[in-house]
Amino acid sequence: MRVGYIVAGWNILSRMLALKTDAGSGALEQMVLAEFCSPHFNTHVPKLRRGLRHKLEILMATLNEQFGTSAEFDDPKGGIFLWVKLPDGVDTVKLNQAALAKGVAINPGPEWSSNAAYAKSRMRLCFASPSVEEIREGIAILADVCAKEFGVPTRIANVER
After folding, report:
1. Which pLDDT belongs to residue 152?
2. Is there a contact between 108 and 95 (Cβ–Cβ < 8 Å)?
3. Spatial CB neighbours of 158, under 8 Å, sequence gap ≥ 6
4. 14: CB partners within 8 A, 6+ apart
5. Most CB contacts within 10 A, which of 73, 101, 134, 160?
6. SS3 31
7. How many angstroms separate the CA atoms of 125 and 139, rounded?
């Protein structure tokens, strides 16, 4: 179920509506969400935030363990994605193809940026859906694939590859 909203001035909304191609969220989905949210919202959101924060911390720690200084990122203020910058020689579109062959999916930066050249070595990692164990395993596989494809990282857990 996917339901969302935007809060913006009419000068922004009018431009967005002109580009909108879907029919929006269905009435049934909105009603189900409203019924759920009324009695559960105030307890659900803090629980959700704690769970997402835990997964994010696992993701960042595992990136540090597996990639060391080869992976640069900032602690995001919100959301379910972590933007990661790899060394300039890494092409995340190619990395994605090689990682998919090993069962790991990433969001290559060029697919999520208006500046493909800038985003070439960047990727978006989603931490909401996978379990903590899947995050750890996926990042280990990703580091191995990246090392084989691009020679990065050269060290893992302070041990030369």
Report:
1. 93
2. yes
3. 68
4. none
5. 73
6. helix
7. 10
For residue 44, what are the CA distances in angstroms to 34, 39, 47, 67?
A: 13, 9, 5, 34
DSSP 109: G
Alpha-carbon gap, residue 146 to 16, rounded angstroms: 38
Residue type, position 91, single letter: D
Pairing outcome for strands 122-126 and 81-85: antiparallel
- pLDDT one digit per residue (tens) for the chain, 161 residues: 667 777 888 898 888 888 877 767 778 888 888 888 889 889 988 999 999 999 999 999 999 999 999 999 999 999 999 999 999 999 999 999 999 999 999 999 999 999 999 999 999 999 999 999 999 999 999 999 999 999 999 876 666 66
What pLDDT score was predicted for residue 157? 63
Say how far apart CA 98 and CA 94 lie, in whole Å. 6
d(CA 91, CA 110): 9
Residues 6+ apart with CB under 8 A from 42: none
**What pTM, to 2 d.p., does this model score?**
0.77
Any idea which residue has 């200084």 for tokens?
69
Contact 98, 149 (CB under 8 A): yes
> 84, 73 in Cβ contact below 8 A?
yes
